[in-house]
Q: What sequence folds into this?
C-alpha cells in the first residue's frame, strides 16, 4: 500500500511540477529579429478578428522584410485605423473606443507610446484625426457630434467644436455626424454622415466647412448625386490642382438608390463641383461576376490622375454575407479625371480588406486572398505588374498602411 | 541442519500457542465515514477457523484465542472484504476496531469537503468519468454565491463582467459559453434567452453539484462539448419549512421561503417556494477606457422574483409522479463601461410547467423509467430607446440612432415557446452487472419576434415572424461491470438531429430585406467509452473517450434580426475528448482520510463557431479548430475530526489548431498558439475547522473556513508582441468565513468576507469586479440531511 501511495504521490508531483514549469512561461519568445530592428518605414494597423477581438499596430523596417514580425507591435482594440504626421502615428479606434493614442517611431524599430486623449465619451467613437500643425490637430467624434481640437505634441485638448445644432443636422435633427476631415487653405472640410441608421446615411453627400483660425463652422453643403461623404482618414485627398476629392461610400450599398464614387470641391470653391462626379455605382464591368460593384470605402491617390481603389463586388458574395470565405473585394486602378476604372491583376480578397498606400513606385494593398497568401501585395506603377503573392506576409486584416521616406 | 532448526522453531511456536488460552479479541466495525456502526458483519480468524458476526451495535468478540499472530477477515455484502493482521498477546484483552469501505466508496470519484459522504454522492462518483461533486450540505448556511463555490473547483473558472446578475461565463477545461451545458436535476437549465443563470438557484436547496469534465453521462440528454454542470436540488419526502435571507455588499439581498406539506386527503405533497434577488451592484471601479476616471456603477440593478409550486402525488404505480409550476420575472439594467448607459434595461418573465414520472419495474421487472417534460413561455423586452447619450462627466448628446447599447432602438416584445421532453429507459440485463440505458431528449423552440420601435426606425414591418428550431438527441448506453466489479465500462452511442424552419429576416440589408424560409435538417452521430479499473482497494484509474456535438443555439443560427445575421448553414461544433485519471482514496480511521486525484486530458474541437463582424453586423461562422490539453490535480485531507484541508491546481492549454488563415490556404501564424482570453494556470486551497458545541451547550455546530485562489495572468490577445498590455492580471484572493448552527442546525447563520485584501480582480478583459465583498446569511429550516 505504501508503494501505491508513493506511486500516486510521485505521479502527482510530476504533474504538479510540469504545471509549474510550463504553465508560467509565455507562449512565444517574440524575439525581435534583426530583419525588423531598424526604424520602421512601414506601419500597418491590423485587425485580428475573428481569431481575437483586438488588433495591432505593427512597425515594419522596410519593404524588404518578407514577413512582418509582431514583436514590436502595439496592442489595440478591434478595427484599428492609423494616420501619420512626421514620426508620429495616431491610433484612431473607430467604433471600438473613444480615445486616440499617439506613437512615435523609434530608431530601434519600436513604437513608443506618447500619450492618449479621450475624444468621445458619450458614444466611444472616433474616426478621423487631421493634423494642421505640430501644435494643432482635429479629431472627429461622429456620434458625439463634436470635433476635438488638441495639441498633438502634448496630446492635450485645447478646444472643441460642438456641432450639436439643428443648423447642421437634417430635418430638424442636431446630429450631422462629422466623419472624415481634410484641411485646405485654412479651412477644415468635414464630411458629415447625417446618419439615419448606423451605418446608413441620409441620401446625398454632406460637407461642412470650418474656419481653422476661429474654429467656427461656416457652412454645410451637399450633393445628391452620391451619398455618404468620406469616412476615415484617406476619405478625402487633394490633387496637384489643389482640388479636394471626396470619397462617397453610398451607405455601403445597403440603401437603394445611394451611389458611391468621388465628388470634387475645386480649388477656391466651397461647393461641390457640379461638373464632376465619378459615379462608380453605375459602372459596369465585363470581367467581374455580376458586372458591378456595391461600394468602395477606400482609395489612394498616387498623382497624375492615378487612383487606386478597393471595391466590394456582390457577385462574389453568397446568399448570406460571409466576410471570411467570400472573396468579394477587388483592387482597381482608376483614372481620376476620365472617371474610368479597371481591375488590377490581383487575386480577389475578402470583405474586410481596405488598405492601400504607396512606397516608392509601388502601390501597396493589404489583401487576404484565397490561395495567394495574406499580407501586403504590390503594384509597380512603372512596370504595371502586380505581385502574385505578398511581398510582406502578415496575419490578420490590414486596415491601414502608413509609409515613411526615412 | 537447516531442516532441524525449522522443526525446532515450529515446535517453539506451537508450544507457545498452546500454552496460553486466556486472551480475547473484541472490537467494533464501522463504515468508512465513521458515521455508522455496522451490524451483521462476518468476522473470521484465519488459522483457527473461529467466526462470529457483529451485533446491532457493530460489536464483536472472541474468547480463548491462542496467543499468536492472526489474519482477521471482515466481510459484508456490498462492502469490500477487509483483512487485518493482529498479534494476540498473552493474558490481554485485545481490541481491534475496523472501518469498512463499501463498493461505492471504493470507486469514489473526487471532491467533497467532508468525510461524511452520502450515498447519492458516492453513486455519482462511481462513474468512470471525471467528475467533481460539491456537497450541498456544505453550502447550506454559507452566505456565498454558487459562482464563488464553483470557482474553487479543479479545472473550473467563472468569468464575470460585473456584480450579481451580470453575464457570467463558466469555463471548464478551456471551454466556455454555450459549450458548457448547465443542467438542473439532469435537465438543461439555461433558458433560451439566457435570462436564468446559475446564481438564480437558491443555494440552500442544492443537494449537490456535479461538475463533469470532458465527458457527460449518457442519461443526460443534452448536447455540449463534453463539460457540464448538474445542479441537483434537495427532495425531502416530509413536511418542512425553510426561510432564509442573504445580504451582501453593494446592496445585494437574497430572500427565500419554502414550505412543504403533505395533504393526506388528496395524498399529495405540496411544496411552495418563493424567492428573489435585489442587487444594486453599485460598486466603484476604474474605467478601463478613460485613464483616471472612476465609475460608480449606478445602472446595474437587478430585480428578480421566482416561484415554484410542486405537487407530488403519492401514486401506487409510479415511484415518483409530480408536476411543478414555475415562474420567473426579472428586470436587469445595463451598466455602461465604455459609455454611461442610463436607461437601457431588459425585462423577462417566464411561466412553465414541468411534469416528472419515475417508475422502477416499468412494464418489465427489470425496466426503469424516468420521464420529464417541460413547457414554458418566456417573454422578453429589451428597452433601449434613449433619445440622448451620456458620458460619465454629466454631459449628454442627442442620440443619432435611438439606441444606447445598440445602433437601433429596441422595444422588443418577443415571445418564446419552449417544449422539452426527456425520456430515459434503463433495462437491467444482468442486475448489478449489465444495464442498457436508452435516452431521448427533444427540444422544440418557437420564437415570435416583435419590435415596433426597431421596425419604425428601420422603416420595416417584420414583427410577428415566427421561426423554430428542433433538437432531438437520442442515445443508447451499455453499462457493464467486469471481474467482480473491479472494471466497469459504459459505452454510449448518440444521435443528434437539428431542424430549423419558419420565417426569418435579416435586417442587415435595410434596403433589400426579404423574409426567408429556412428548412434545414442535420443528422450527426457521436459515441463515448468510459472505463474505470480498481487497481487496489484505494487506487483506481479512469479512462474516457468521447466524440460529441454541440448543436447551434437559436440565436447563433437564426440571429437577432437586427445586428446578428442568421446563418442557417451553421454546423454543430464537434469534439474528440480523451481523459485519463487516477484516484487514490485512503481512510486512515473514521476521522482521517486522504484523497488524491489527478487527470490529464486531450480534446480536439472542430467547426468552432465564432462571431464574425463587419460594418456593424455580426454572424456566427464555423471557422475554428482547437486543441485543448492539460492536467489537474487535487489533494484533500481530512486531518482529524475537526480539521480539513485541500489544495488543487489546474494547468490547461487551449491551442488554436486552425492551420490556415480562415478562408485561405495560407498557413496561419496563430497555428498552435494559445487561444486568447482563457485562463491557463490556477490553484485553489482550503482550510476548514468544524466542531460541535464549540462554545458548550447542545445541538450546536460551528465551522470556520478559509479559501484561497490564485489565477495566473492570461492574455486578451495572442501573444505575438513584446508589448502585451492587454492582459488579465494575476490575482490571488482570500476568503474567510464562518457558519454557526443552533438547535441541531434548524437555525443557521453564516458570514464571510470574499477577497479580504481587496485585490484587484478581473476575469474578463476590461470588466473590473467589485473587490472585497462581505456576505451574511440567516436561515431557519426544518430540513434534515
A:
Amino acid at each position: 500500500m505504501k508503494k501505491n501511495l508513493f506511486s500516486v504521490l510521485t505521479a502527482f508531483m510530476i504533474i504538479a511540477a510540469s504545471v509549474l514549469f510550463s504553465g508560467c512561461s509565455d507562449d512565444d519568445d517574440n524575439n525581435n529579429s534583426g530583419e525588423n530592428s531598424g526604424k520602421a518605414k512601414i506601419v500597418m494597423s491590423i485587425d485580428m478578428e475573428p481569431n481575437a477581438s483586438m488588433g495591432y499596430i505593427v512597425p515594419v523596417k522596410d519593404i524588404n522584410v518578407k514577413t512582418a514580425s509582431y514583436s514590436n507591435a502595439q496592442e489595440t482594440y478591434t478595427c484599428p485605423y492609423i494616420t501619420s504626421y512626421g514620426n508620429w502615428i495616431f491610433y484612431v479606434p473607430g467604433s471600438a473606443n473613444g480615445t486616440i493614442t499617439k506613437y512615435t517611431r523609434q530608431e530601434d524599430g519600436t513604437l513608443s507610446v506618447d500619450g492618449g486623449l479621450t475624444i468621445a465619451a458619450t458614444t466611444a467613437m472616433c474616426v478621423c484625426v487631421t493634423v494642421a500643425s505640430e501644435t494643432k490637430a482635429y479629431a472627429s467624434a461622429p456620434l458625439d457630434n463634436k470635433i476635438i481640437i488638441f495639441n498633438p505634441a502634448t496630446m492635450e485638448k485645447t478646444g472643441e467644436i460642438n456641432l450639436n445644432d439643428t443648423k447642421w443636422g437634417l430635418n430638424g435633427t442636431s446630429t450631422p455626424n462629422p466623419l472624415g476631415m481634410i484641411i485646405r487653405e485654412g479651412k477644415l472640410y468635414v464630411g458629415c454622415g447625417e446618419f439615419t441608421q448606423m451605418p446608413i446615411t441620409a441620401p446625398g453627400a454632406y460637407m461642412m466647412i470650418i474656419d481653422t483660425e476661429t474654429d467656427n463652422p461656416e457652412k454645410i453643403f451637399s450633393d445628391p448625386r452620391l451619398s455618404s461623404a468620406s469616412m476615415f482618414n484617406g476619405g478625402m485627398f487633394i490633387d496637384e490642382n489643389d482640388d479636394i476629392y471626396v470619397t462617397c461610400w453610398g451607405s455601403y450599398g445597403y440603401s437603394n438608390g445611394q451611389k458611391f464614387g468621388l465628388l470634387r470641391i475645386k480649388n477656391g470653391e466651397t461647393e461641390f463641383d457640379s461638373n464632376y462626379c465619378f459615379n462608380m455605382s453605375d459602372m459596369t464591368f465585363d470581367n467581374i461576376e455580376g458586372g458591378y460593384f456595391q461600394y468602395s470605402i477606400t482609395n489612394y491617390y498616387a498623382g497624375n490622375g492615378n487612383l487606386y481603389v478597393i471595391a466590394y463586388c456582390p457577385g462574389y458574395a453568397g446568399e448570406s454575407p460571409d466576410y471570411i470565405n467570400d472573396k468579394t473585394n477587388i483592387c482597381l486602378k482608376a483614372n481620376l479625371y476620365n472617371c474610368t476604372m479597371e481591375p488590377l491583376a490581383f487575386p480577389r480578397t475578402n470583405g474586410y480588406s481596405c488598405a492601400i498606400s504607396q512606397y516608392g513606385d509601388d502601390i501597396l494593398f493589404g489583401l487576404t486572398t484565397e490561395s495567394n497568401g495574406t499580407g501586403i501585395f504590390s503594384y509597380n506603377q512603372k512596370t504595371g505588374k502586380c505581385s502574385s503573392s505578398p511581398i510582406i506576409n502578415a496575419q490578420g486584416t490590414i486596415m491601414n498602411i502608413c509609409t515613411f521616406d526615412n | 541442519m537447516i531442516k532441524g532448526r525449522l522443526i525446532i522453531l515450529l515446535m517453539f511456536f506451537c508450544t507457545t500457542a498452546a500454552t496460553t488460552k486466556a486472551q480475547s479479541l473484541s472490537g467494533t466495525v464501522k463504515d468508512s465515514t465513521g458515521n455508522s456502526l455496522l451490524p451483521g458483519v462476518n468476522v473470521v480468524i484465519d488459522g483457527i477457523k473461529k467466526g462470529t458476526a457483529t451485533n446491532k451495535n457493530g460489536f464483536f468478540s472472541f474468547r480463548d484465542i491462542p496467543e499468536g499472530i492472526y489474519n482477521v477477515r471482515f466481510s459484508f455484502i456490498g462492502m469490500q472484504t477487509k483483512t487485518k493482521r493482529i498479534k494476540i498477546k498473552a493474558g490481554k484483552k485485545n481490541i481491534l476496531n475496523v472501518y469498512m469501505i463499501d463498493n461505492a466508496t471504493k470507486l469514489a470519484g473526487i471532491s467533497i469537503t467532508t468525510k461524511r459522504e452520502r450515498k447519492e454522492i458516492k453513486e455519482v462518483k462511481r462513474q468512470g468519468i471525471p467528475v467533481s461533486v460539491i456537497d450541498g450540505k456544505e453550502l447550506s448556511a454559507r452566505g456565498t454565491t454558487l459562482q464563488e463555490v464553483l470557482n474553487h473547483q479543479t479545472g473550473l473558472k467563472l468569468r464575470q463582467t460585473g456584480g450579481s446578475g451580470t453575464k457570467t461565463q463558466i469555463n471548464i477545461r478551456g471551454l466556455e459559453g454555450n459549450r458548457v451545458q448547465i443542467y438542473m436535476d439532469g435537465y438543461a437549465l439555461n433558458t433560451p434567452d439566457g435570462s436564468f443563470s446559475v446564481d438564480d438557484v437558491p443555494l440552500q436547496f442544492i443537494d449537490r453539484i456535479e461538475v463533469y469534465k470532458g465527458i457527460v453521462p449518457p442519461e443526460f440528454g443534452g448536447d455540449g462539448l463534453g463539460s457540464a454542470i448538474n445542479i441537483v436540488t434537495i427532495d425531502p419526502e416530509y413536511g418542512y419549512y425553510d426561510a432564509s435571507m442573504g445580504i451582501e455588499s453593494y446592496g445585494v439581498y437574497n430572500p427565500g421561503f419554502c414550505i412543504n406539506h403533505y395533504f393526506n386527503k388528496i395524498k399529495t405533497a405540496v411544496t411552495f417556494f418563493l424567492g428573489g434577488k435585489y442587487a444594486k451592484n453599485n460598486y466603484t471601479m476604474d474605467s478601463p477606457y478613460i485613464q483616471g476616471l472612476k465609475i460608480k456603477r449606478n445602472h446595474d440593478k437587478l430585480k428578480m422574483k421566482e416561484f415554484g409550486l410542486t405537487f407530488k402525488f403519492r401514486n401506487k404505480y409510479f415511484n415518483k409522479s409530480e408536476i411543478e409550476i414555475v415562474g420567473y420575472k426579472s428586470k436587469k439594467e445595463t451598466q455602461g463601461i465604455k459609455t454611461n448607459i442610463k436607461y437601457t434595461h431588459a425585462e423577462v418573465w417566464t411561466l412553465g410547467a414541468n411534469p416528472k414520472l419515475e417508475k422502477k419495474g416499468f412494464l418489465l421487472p427489470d425496466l426503469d423509467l424516468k420521464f420529464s417534460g417541460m413547457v414554458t413561455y418566456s417573454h422578453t423586452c429589451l428597452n433601449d430607446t434613449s433619445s440622448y447619450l451620456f458620458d460619465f462627466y454629466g454631459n449628454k448628446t442627442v442620440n443619432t440612432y435611438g439606441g444606447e447599447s445598440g445602433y437601433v432602438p429596441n422595444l422588443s416584445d418577443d415571445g418564446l415557446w419552449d417544449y422539452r421532453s426527456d425520456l430515459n429507459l434503463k433495462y437491467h440485463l444482468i442486475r448489478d452487472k449489465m444495464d442498457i440505458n436508452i435516452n431521448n431528449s427533444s427540444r422544440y423552440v418557437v420564437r415570435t419576434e416583435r419590435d415596433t420601435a426597431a421596425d419604425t426606425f428601420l422603416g420595416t414591418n417584420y414583427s410577428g415572424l415566427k421561426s423554430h428550431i428542433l433538437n432531438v438527441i437520442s442515445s443508447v448506453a451499455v453499462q457493464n461491470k467486469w471481474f467482480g466489479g473491479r472494471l466497469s465500462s459504459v459505452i454510449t452511442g448518440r444521435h443528434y438531429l437539428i431542424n430549423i424552419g419558419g420565417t426569418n429576416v435579416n435586417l442587415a440589408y435595410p434596403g433589400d430585406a426579404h423574409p426567408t424560409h429556412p428548412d434545414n435538417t442535420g443528422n450527426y452521430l457521436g459515441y463515448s467509452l468510459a472505463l474505470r479499473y480498481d487497481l487496489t482497494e484505494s487506487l483506481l484509474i479512469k479512462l474516457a473517450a468521447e466524440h460529441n456535438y454541440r448543436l447551434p443555439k437559436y440565436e447563433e443560427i437564426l440571429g437577432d434580426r437586427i445586428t446578428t445575421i442568421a446563418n442557417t448553414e451553421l454546423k454543430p461544433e464537434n469534439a474528440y475528448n480523451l481523459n485519463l485519471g487516477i484516484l487514490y482514496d485512503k481512510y486512515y480511521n473514521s476521522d482521517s482520510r486522504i484523497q488524491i486525484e489527478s487527470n490529464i486530458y486531450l480534446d480536439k474541437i472542430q467547426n468552432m463557431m465564432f462571431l464574425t463582424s463587419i460594418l456593424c453586423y455580426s454572424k456566427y461562422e464555423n471557422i475554428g479548430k482547437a486543441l485543448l490539453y492539460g492536467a489537474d490535480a487535487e489533494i484533500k485531507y481530512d486531518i482529524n475530526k475537526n480539521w480539513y484541508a485541500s489544495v488543487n491546481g489546474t494547468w490547461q492549454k487551449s491551442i488554436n489548431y486552425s492551420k490556415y488563415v480562415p478562408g485561405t490556404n495560407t498557413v496561419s501564424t496563430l497555428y498552435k498558439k494559445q487561444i486568447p482570453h482563457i485562463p491557463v494556470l490556477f490553484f485553489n486551497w482550503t482550510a476548514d475547522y468544524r466542531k460541535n458545541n464549540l462554545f458548550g451547550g447542545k445541538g450546536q455546530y460551528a465551522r470556520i473556513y478559509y479559501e484561497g485562489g490564485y489565477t495566473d495572468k492570461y492574455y486578451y490577445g495572442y501573444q505575438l508582441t513584446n508589448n502585451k498590455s492587454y492582459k488579465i492580471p494575476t490575482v490571488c484572493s482570500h476568503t474567510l468565513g464562518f457558519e454557526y448552527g443552533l438547535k441541531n442546525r434548524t437555525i443557521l447563520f453564516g458570514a464571510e468576507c470574499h477577497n479580504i485584501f481587496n485585490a484587484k480582480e478581473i476575469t474578463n478583459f476590461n470588466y473590473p469586479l467589485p473587490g472585497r465583498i462581505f456576505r451574511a446569511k440567516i436561515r431557519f429550516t426544518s430540513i434534515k440531511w
Observations:
- Residues 1-21, 104-116 of chain B have pLDDT under 50 and may be disordered.
- Chain B is about 5% helix and 55% strand.
- The CA atoms of residues 103 and 700 of chain B lie 33 Å apart.
